[in-house]
């Protein structure tokens, strides 16, 4: 019997496996995907949001605990567990040396591109390189990894973990377990159930694209719900981004994001604006736009910019629709030209004089138009004009297992003695709604390490009990 079983294969699972192994436990990881697709959503990440009180290696200036907390408070609208959030924030300040010991390398962010040189540490080679580094380190330390081994059933004795059953019917037991198998964002039926029908009779989830792995079906979340584990979070909440409508159904990752939203206007299928595009810096507000687009007819919208802002944002992978006039652009997009022009003319007339600066919260705003645009409001009047179609791109879901600072799964508000959880399966404790860049990796790293340490200790305790 193995000491610690890890179910999952992404960042949180790997952090748990490494910590458990470092603590002396024998460790087996079960990853649902083939080896080539290992790593879950972590393979698509780029950075980790890090608290720091002074300049550190790849991070400039300072990003103190209170500012990090206020950023998180703002995007979640207060729907967060403050003690657990602060645990994550503090853990983000001192994990990088441990990560480096396991082969992760960091690089400075692209200066001026995303306003995150102060707040986020970027992985050299992105999330795929991080995942590969952790797997190399895990295997060198003796962690056993089995791919293409989805778990379909949990074996429990009350609140105590006994084992799992795999899709092939194999029973695997262990002294302790860490669940880190992701959310249910790839389960279309569950998404439909969570989002329901809108007042137009549409099923919004039918038009969602999945930014990450196709293997996150939520099987273990369902199993734990059925077993009576304490849950937290709204199943319709998640990290949902407005991405290129031409993105693939799965695994589009970071390169499908459209980053020019804050520099222009966004209209729906009816040619109307529906939200303040300049509310805040893009890394702080980009994650609200998937949900906003999901609420529009046909779950589609269009980001409209002109030549003046080209070069001021990360260019999309696919070229936009281009036209020499706004009416021509509307026609190419098959939008109602008259309504579209009323929207653009009204917006342009509302733009007030100011000093445009996309690197700060500038004084360029609108007056007398709804919705207002509170920063970076410039007239869209310089040909050529560009448009990018947007769809909701769901990254991960926030329905979670409820935890405390031990990462133990809870039953009737009591912690399991040997079953722990990390990553997306518990992120809803910190993220009730909303998102800010890099915080998912902060949560997975912090709780993965806590869960791995806890599982190793539980396995030692079981061994001691067994000897007596």
UniProtKB/TrEMBL annotation:
Domain (FAD-dependent oxidoreductase 2 FAD-binding): residue spans on this chain: 3-431
Alphabetical UniProt keywords: FAD, Flavoprotein, Oxidoreductase
Superkingdom per UniProt: Bacteria
Keyword Heme (UniProt): no
Cofactor(s) recorded in Swiss-Prot or TrEMBL: FAD
Pfam families linked: FAD_binding_2 (PF00890)
Flavoprotein listed as a keyword: yes
Protein name: FAD-dependent tricarballylate dehydrogenase TcuA
């Amino acid at each position: 019997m193995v000491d610690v079983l890890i179910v999952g294969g992404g960042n949180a699972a790997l952090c748990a496996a490494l910590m458990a192994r470092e603590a002396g436990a024998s460790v087996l990881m079960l990853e649902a995907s083939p080896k080539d697709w290992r790593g879950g959503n972590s393979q698509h990440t780029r950075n980790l949001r890090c608290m720091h009180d002074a300049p550190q290696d790849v991070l400039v200036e300072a990003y103190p605990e209170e500012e990090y907390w206020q950023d998180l408070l703002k995007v979640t609208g207060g729907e967060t567990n403050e003690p657990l959030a602060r645990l994550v924030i503090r853990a983000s300040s001192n994990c990088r040396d441990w990560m480096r010991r396991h082969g992760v390398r960091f690089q400075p962010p692209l200066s001026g591109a995303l306003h995150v040189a102060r707040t986020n540490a970027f992985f050299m080679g992105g999330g795929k390189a991080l995942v590969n580094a952790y797997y190399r380190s895990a295997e060198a330390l003796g962690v056993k990894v089995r791919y293409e081994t989805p778990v379909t059933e949990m074996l429990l004795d009350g609140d105590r973990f006994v084992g799992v059953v795999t899709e092939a019917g194999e029973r695997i037991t262990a002294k302790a377990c860490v669940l880190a198998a992701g959310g249910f964002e790839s389960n279309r039926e569950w998404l439909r159930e969570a989002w329901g029908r809108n007042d137009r009779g549409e099923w919004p989830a039918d038009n969602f694209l999945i930014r990450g792995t196709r293997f996150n079906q939520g099987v273990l979340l369902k199993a734990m719900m059925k077993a009576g584990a304490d849950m937290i979070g709204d199943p319709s909440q998640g990290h949902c981004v407005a991405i290129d409508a031409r993105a693939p159904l799965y695994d589009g990752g970071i390169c499908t994001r459209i980053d020019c939203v804050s520099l222009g206007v966004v209209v729906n299928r009816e040619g109307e604006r529906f939200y303040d595009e300049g509310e805040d810096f893009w890394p702080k507000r980009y994650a609200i736009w998937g949900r906003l687009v999901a609420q529009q007819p046909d779950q589609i919208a269009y980001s409209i910019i002109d030549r003046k802002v080209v070069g001021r944002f990360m260019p999309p992978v696919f070229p936009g629709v281009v036209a020499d006039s706004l009416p021509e652009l509307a026609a190419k997009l098959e939008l109602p030209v008259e309504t579209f022009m009323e929207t653009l003319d009204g917006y342009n007339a509302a733009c007030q004089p100011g000093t445009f600066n996309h690197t700060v919260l500038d004084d360029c705003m609108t007056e007398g138009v709804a919705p207002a645009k509170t920063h970076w409001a410039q007239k869209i009047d310089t040909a050529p004009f560009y448009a990018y179609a947007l769809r909701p791109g769901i990254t991960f879901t926030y329905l979670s297992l409820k935890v405390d600072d031990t990462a133990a799964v809870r039953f009737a508000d009591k912690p399991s003695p040997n079953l722990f959880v990390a990553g997306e399966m518990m992120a809803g404790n910190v993220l009730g709604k909303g998102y800010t860049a890099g915080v998912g990796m902060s949560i997975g790293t912090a709780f993965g390490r806590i869960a791995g340490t806890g599982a190793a200790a539980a396995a030692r305790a079981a061994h001691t009990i067994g000897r007596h």
